[in-house]
Design a protein that fits this description.
Blueprint: E1 2-3, E2 7-12, E3 30-38, E4 47-48, E5 56-57, E6 78-79, E7 101-105, E8 120-125, H1 130-136, E9 138-143, E10 146-154, E11 158-163
Parallel strand pairs: 5-6
Antiparallel strand pairs: 1-4, 2-3, 2-8, 3-7, 3-10, 8-11, 9-10
Length: 175
């Protein structure tokens, strides 16, 4: 039995279709992220026995009501939910499905996994609290003439990752 408590859904800050010389270069030791959503719990609240899985949804709703070829996610195990600062861009919250704990996200509206498939997605086990993470894992970097900020996840925390790209535009592996 494994526990999903503290398991994080991550989206990379770097693109797989644009290779830049990031300074400082942390890629041998860490993964630069722009979104971090974590399964809540005290470490033993969400057990998964061998062969079991869990479903995490962007919007935990029955999508077949608007598209019969879609799926019903209204009984997902978790969903990520964002409070938006823009009254014209609001998220949907299913009160019957627990929300992931939002550690960090770059957007002030709602987050969705990159539609063009040009970023990496990873899962990590977070061994520190949200407060400790936000205090200790900020990543300020530059490339060309741009200065940016994100957060970093040590590579040793990463459980699995997938690098997404359109074949014709692929530039590099960022995990």
């Amino acid at each position: 039995t494994l526990y999903a408590d503290g398991l994080a859904l991550l989206e990379s800050d770097f693109l797989t279709v644009q290779k830049w010389d990031y300074k400082p270069d942390i890629m041998n030791d860490a993964f630069a992220v722009r979104a971090i959503y974590v399964v809540p719990g005290n470490g033993t609240q969400h057990p998964l026995k061998p062969g079991e899985s869990l479903t995490i949804a962007n919007n935990a709703m029955d999508h077949t009501t608007v598209n019969t070829n879609s799926i019903n996610l209204s009984k997902a195990d978790f969903e990520w939910y964002d409070v938006s600062s823009n009254p014209n861009v609001q998220d949907i919250d299913n009160p019957e499905v627990p929300n992931l704990d939002k550690y960090y996200c770059y957007t002030k509206t709602i987050w969705g996994i990159h539609g063009g498939g040009n970023r990496s997605i990873a899962i990590a086990k977070m061994p520190v609290s949200k407060e400790e993470y936000l205090t200790s894992y900020k990543y300020d970097y530059s490339y060309n003439t741009s200065n940016r900020s994100a957060y970093k996840i040590p590579n040793k925390w990463i459980v699995d990752a997938v690098n997404l790209s359109q074949k014709k535009d692929f530039a590099w592996i960022i995990t």
